[in-house]
Amino acid sequence: MRRKHRSPSIFGAPVTLRVALLWLIVALTLAACQMTPATSDTQPAGSPALTGPGLVQAPLDPLTLLGQDTVPLSGEAVFWEVAAAELPTVHAGKPKSPEVAAAPPQTEFEGLGDGPLKRSNFFLIQRAYPADDLESGVYAAAVESMRGMQPVEAAQTLPTWQNIGPAPMLNSMMGQQPVNVSGRVRALAIDPTDSNTVYLGSALGGVWKTTNGGDSWTPLTDDQASLASAAIVIDPADPNTIYVGTGEPTPGLDNYYGAGILKSTDGGQTWTRLGADVFTGLAIAKIIIAPNNRNLLYVAASRSGVEGIASPPRGIFRSIDGGQTWQSLIGCQDCFGAADLVINPQNPSVLYASFWQYGVFKSTDGGNNWSQLGGGLPNSQQYRVGRVILTLSPNNPDTIYASYQLTVPDQYDGAVLFKTTNGGQNWTQIQTGYNYCGTQCWYSHEAMVHPTNPNIL
């Protein structure tokens, strides 16, 4: 699976040493993009299932797509995945020595073939040697090495460099004519007490901050263990406290894994890494601070698009001590993971989570027990369920929208929108009239309900 386009991130480190080392680290971790099939108790045997205390999975109803008749599918479910024929066998033809790895194509690597996926496997095999996989902590170790170099480098006489970004770049990969584009922005968080202060998370350029409404930006996390930043949340009780979830939680070839959660209590000047033992190798899709307890955090985590990295179990996690320790609530070892998470602001014990390949789950006791929701939602045995985005009405929290990425082979590939007004008991398909994220729903896919009008999305 490949995105239609890629643009280089402008949110990079402004110091030449950091840039050079960043590219070294990027090369170290580049690997193939792959979706791993998942299953539940209602899906065919032989695939790993979601696990969690008190997990209840209900049978789901058929689906009508965009006004069409329900598409009957017989036999075993066909799950959304990269076809095996499109990928070389992982680590097949691994060289016997680094010299062979660096040798011309007539070596054992000739069988890998051409193309981005093959190239990424070539990168992985060289850098993992002699092991089969890269350990997820390799990236963080490289950053620690970089930190040790900086004081030495700073003492030397260097040419004067000027940071010319962030600014649009002319990019010819966006269509017939070159256009000005920026790097991929994955997260935005606005200070609740000052709308001119905004934190921005980028795909692989770290976190940036503006205090003048976007006229100028300052990088905050250039020397942290991961620059992939896809989730940011500000503590409403103390806007100087910020949490950043690292990693990019989508299956793109250039979507990199993270190294845990970064926490700052001084507006981003300094950072502490939390949950490294739980989240390193994963990507954080969402962080929620409970509205009734600032030390109660929930996290949705998945894997990233990088293959060949040791990836721990992923799913929904909870912390009761401000991120110091974490408990897994519902998750899986081999599925792609959790895509989204929302909380009822009027009753914080009620949470809704979505999982790639599964759909939507609900908890009414703060995450201790979960039920898979049906009542009109797509049946993952009949349809390829991909990324599912959730948005909940703040002033009418029983109204929730679920935006599904769905595929019916040879018929449809894109977005289908559902709405519930009774807390997930029943869902209605909303006829939008168009496929609002096309075949990019696995990546370019967001939804948000109006803060006061639940009928505006």
Describe the structure.
This protein is an alpha+beta fold and 457 residues long. It has helices at residues 16-29, 98-101, 116-128, 138-154, 276-279; strands at residues 55-57, 169-171, 179-181, 185-190, 198-202, 207-210, 218-219, 229-234, 242-246, 261-264, 272-274, 283-289, 297-302, 314-319, 327-332, 338-343, 351-355, 359-363, 370-372, 384-392, 400-408, 412-420, 428-430. Strands 1-19-18-17-16 form a five-stranded mixed beta sheet, with no helix packed on it. A four-stranded antiparallel beta sheet has the order 4-5-6-7, with no helix packed on it. It has a four-stranded antiparallel beta sheet with strand order 8-9-10-11. Strand 8 and strand 9 form a beta hairpin. The longest helix has 17 residues, at 138-154. Mean pLDDT is 76; it is low at 1-48 and 57-109.
Topology:
Blueprint: H1 16-29, E1 55-57, H2 98-101, H3 116-128, H4 138-154, E2 169-171, E3 179-181, E4 185-190, E5 198-202, E6 207-210, E7 218-219, E8 229-234, E9 242-246, E10 261-264, E11 272-274, H5 276-279, E12 283-289, E13 297-302, E14 314-319, E15 327-332, E16 338-343, E17 351-355, E18 359-363, E19 370-372, E20 384-392, E21 400-408, E22 412-420, E23 428-430
Parallel strand pairs: 1-19
Antiparallel strand pairs: 2-3, 4-5, 5-6, 6-7, 8-9, 9-10, 10-11, 12-13, 13-14, 14-15, 16-17, 17-18, 18-19, 20-21, 21-22, 22-23
Helix pairs in contact: 1-4
